[in-house]
Amino acid sequence: MDAKIEPADPAAATDLAAREAAYEKFVWDNLKRNYLGNYLHGMLGMTGFRLVNTPTFLPAYLHMISGSNAIVGLGLALQQVGGVISPIFGASRIEHRTKVMPAAMWMGGLARMAVLGIALSGWLLKGNALVGSILGFMLMFGIFMGAQRVVFSLLMAKVIPISRRGRLQAWRNFTGSLIAAGMASLAGTYFIGPNLFGNGYGTTFVFAFILTSLGLSALQMLLREPEPPTTRTQAKFRDRLREFPRLITEDRAYAWFLVVQMLSSSARIATPFYILYVGTSVHMTGKLLGALSFAYIGADALSNLIWGYLGDKTGFRLVLLFSLAAWAASTVLLLEVHTTWAIFLAFFGLGAGQAGYMMAAQTMILEFGARDDLPMRIAVSATAESITATLAPLIGGQVADLFGYSTVFGLSLGVLAAGLLVLIGMVKEPRTARLAAL
To answer: Long-range CB contacts (< 8 A, 24+ apart) of 246-254?
Structure first.
């Protein structure tokens, strides 16, 4: 069913205009409070998730307890497959609601419980039971992260004006990544190295759970959510699925942007094997693991200041282009130069490139199409990304076992190059098109 549109009746049109003006006034009147809430949520909430998602701790942990590249790939694939359907389901549950914060608390809370489950498994289980438990919690983590991605993106779009989103993400990612980088270095040296409390990895993930929970609590206390002037009428889940082709084909730039997302997420075929590849050329210690995690997450912190302000100034298409190029160049450096300084620099570049990609992809999606279609448009992109990101590590694990890590990295470079070509040739800056339509 189509979204509500501005009525032709003059009185109804005047009423809608008044509600739009009231909505805008609410956003600006509550901007400082909502800006602080989103900042604290990003700084603390996403800090813990960086420790889980960084391509060092969890892949190294899975490989240590399983001894298998395929299991490492399976773990990342399960995490991604959880995000295939959950964004669509999450969008269908909230797109007709005037307030979505209650759903955000449930989805965010359950994602954090999955992190706690990964942590506790290390103390409570052994052997195959431990491997199976962690794989199960990674699937759970992916399911609720996929759903919460839609909700929290919609919340930011509702309460933060488009001209302020880049700098908000820049500063919250900068400070959050600094904390995560410090935690990564601390975890590698003092948690994982000496196996603190009998399981250094478990201790690391407990700290991740605590930080993410503090961030979610801060958002709940501070956020003031407006009621939008229009919402979609509630529809059945299968009816919304049938509308996917329309959402994609009605905006050619968005359709090609979706192709870039899928190609870029396919490049994650190499992500869980960065740290394992390093282990084949240098002696891996807890201190080195912490240092490379620090480089990866620290690059996230520093680069986000550049990406955020550049995106606010020029739009995020340019951020996406530069970040994909940095991702590809760093992969080449990791593959070709095997000295410690080059490995550290490569992880720094990978962190910067992937951070820029995430910021650009998550922000550009908010600038395509109509506001009432935003929840489902976010869901379409999240689902498309998750499908390719699910298949990539599964394939990567098998390719790594059969042909080695170099072949996996070569495949990653190939899809990154294809994504850059499509971005340059087919995707226009959505902000320019939006401003031209005003």
So the answer is: 247/369, 247/373, 247/376, 247/377, 247/380, 248/380, 250/369, 251/368, 251/369, 253/368, 253/426, 253/427, 253/428, 253/430, 253/433, 254/368, 254/369, 254/377, 254/430
Taking alpha carbons only, the member of 181, 183, 177, 231 closest to residue 204 is: 183
- Judge whether 303 and 395 are in contact, CB under 8 Å: no
What 8-state DSSP symbol labels residue 421?
A: H
Alpha carbon distance, N-terminus to C-terminus of the chain: 26
Residue 390, CA atoms < 13 Å, CB-side half-sphere: 19
Buried/exposed code over 135-152 (b: 16+ C-beta within 10 A; e: otherwise): bebbbbbbbbbbbbbbbb
The pTM for the full model equals 0.67
Q: Which of 115, 177, 106, 180 is nearest to 358 (CA)?
A: 177
Assign residue 141 a region (left: φ > 0; alpha: ψ between -120 and 50; beta: otherwise): alpha
Residue by residue, DSSP assigns 203-269 as HHHHHHHHHHHHHHHHHHHH--PPPPS--PPP--HHHHHHTHHHHHHT-HHHHHHHHHHHHHHHGGG
pLDDT digits 0-9 by tens, 210-228:
988 998 898 889 988 888 7
Q: Please, what is the Cα angle at 154 between 234 and 385, to 5 degrees?
A: 95
Tokens matching residue 167 = 């700098």
Span 262-289, pLDDT tens digits: 999 888 888 878 888 887 877 767 778 7
pLDDT given for residue 388 in this prediction: 81
pLDDT, residue 13, reads 59
User: Cα–chain-centroid distance for residue 210?
Assistant: 19
User: What is the dihedral sign for C-alpha 317, 320, 326, 331?
Assistant: negative
Any idea what DSSP says for residue 4? P
Q: Using CA atoms, how far apart are residues 63 and 21, in angstroms rounded to an integer?
A: 55
